[in-house]
Specification:
Bound molecules: alpha-L-arabinofuranose
Mean pLDDT: 89
Structural class: alpha/beta
Strand order of the largest sheet: 9-8-10-11-12-15-17-16
CATH superfamily of the largest domain: Response regulator
CATH class of the largest domain: Alpha Beta
CATH topology of the largest domain: Rossmann fold
CATH architecture of the largest domain: 3-Layer(aba) Sandwich
Number of helices: 11
Length: 366
């Protein structure tokens, strides 16, 4: 793809988006249409050409990935590698930034140097992006953001990801309904947050806290486990020592932290899950997480869908065909539980079904 054409398309896309008055992530409604199937839903304008590489040109994509901290991340990387494969006409330049923001900025600058056709960024942190995105814009390289949000710049073509605040609100609304159904009067929650500064952490923390404040629950402590199993285990070990007998809910902001927290609670002799003293809540709902929901170790798991790549490809096709992609595309997500005692919850005034995990559901998950 020729640089000048891409640059022109990028400017047109950004201008059209601004003129259309697309809202920011904060303004985006929780019930914004979820991306169920790629293709037509993403584009306005453009013709019907198939893969952008159909012309025979190889499309070079630079992808600055957060790291390899979780099962979710592995699924996200695989999704991009599968879609942007050589067989599909792509040359994917992949950088694992190992959760280091400086490395991620370097990676993006490296892609500019390499003169790639498109840049995909999954931002480790939500801020500090405007300068490097301006450099991308000046170089005429369209940027597509996936998963986590960039909150201090809009110099990207599209963002494809999850509403993290809605995930946090859903965890809170589920806990409220579950506690009522079980006759639990008091909630004393320990939160194991994700990586500091990540929009996934910020949104889930805000959402859960909003319900906790409304219901008068106590959040006993809230510390970062960095979205890793080791981090979850370390924080939970110290929680068990500091707050023995003083908590009845643990909220882990991803599955890997929950795995670590379970190990630490086992070590400390604390029982958890549907037959235990502590209600365990998690986010992501990757295969291993759902296995623990089915076994009753995790009470509820709020999905964060990592399969963004097909939607990113649609954005690229739209740009290549001269169309204007949607500024924001929300992934479709489900809420998973072990017990069949509640069929749905209300989140932001919307009724959302709860899915009891079965072997078939686990087999179909990433
Ligand atoms: O940004 C998405 C979050 O990052 C996922 O919840 C977590 O598993 C990952 O590491």
């Amino acid at each position: 793809m020729k640089r000048k054409l891409i640059g022109l398309l990028l400017c047109v896309a950004m201008t059209a988006t601004l003129l259309a008055g697309c809202g920011s992530k904060e303004e985006a409604p929780a019930d914004a249409p979820a991306a169920e199937a790629p293709a037509e839903t993403l584009a306005e304008g453009g013709d019907d050409a198939d893969a952008p590489a159909a012309s025979g040109d190889v499309i070079t994509i630079g992808f600055a990935q957060v790291g390899h901290e979780s099962d979710w991340r592995t699924a996200s990387t695989k999704s991009c590698q599968d879609v942007f494969s050589e067989a599909n006409g792509y040359d994917l330049q992949f950088v694992d930034c190992d959760n280091d923001s400086a490395v991620q900025l370097e990676a993006v600058r490296g892609f500019i140097e390499q003169d790639v056709d498109y840049i995909i960024i999954d931002p480790i942190v939500a801020t500090g992006w405007d300068t490097v995105l301006t450099e991308c814009e000046d170089a005429g390289i369209p940027v597509i953001v996936i998963d986590r949000t960039i909150d201090d710049s809009d110099k990207y073509v599209s963002w494809v990801g999850s509403n993290f605040k809605t995930e946090g609100l859903a965890a809170g609304e589920w806990l409220k309904a579950y506690a009522e159904a079980k006759g639990i009067k008091e909630i004393n929650a320990l939160v194991i947050e994700g990586s500091t500064g990540a929009s996934a952490t910020i949104g889930r923390t805000e959402g859960f806290k909003e319900i906790a404040d409304r219901e008068g629950w106590t959040i006993v402590d809230s510390q970062s486990g960095d979205f890793t199993q080791d981090g979850g285990a370390e924080v939970m070990e110290s929680y068990c020592k500091s707050y023995e007998g003083k908590f009845n809910v643990v909220v882990c902001q991803n599955d890997n932290e929950a795995f670590g927290a379970m190990d630490a609670m086992k070590q400390a002799g604390v029982s958890y899950g549907v037959n235990g003293d502590v209600i365990l809540i998690s986010f992501d709902a990757c295969t291993a997480g759902l296995e623990f929901v089915k076994s009753g170790d995790i009470n509820a798991d709020f999905e964060c869908n990592p399969l963004a790549a097909p939607f990113v490809e649609e954005v690229i096709k739209t740009l290549a065909n001269g169309g204007t992609p949607e500024k924001e595309v929300y992934m479709e997500e489900h809420w998973f539980v072990n017990e069949d005692i509640l069929s749905s919850i209300e989140v932001n005034g919307e009724t959302q079904n709860l899915t009891v995990v079965t072997d078939d559901i686990i087999a179909a998950q990433y």
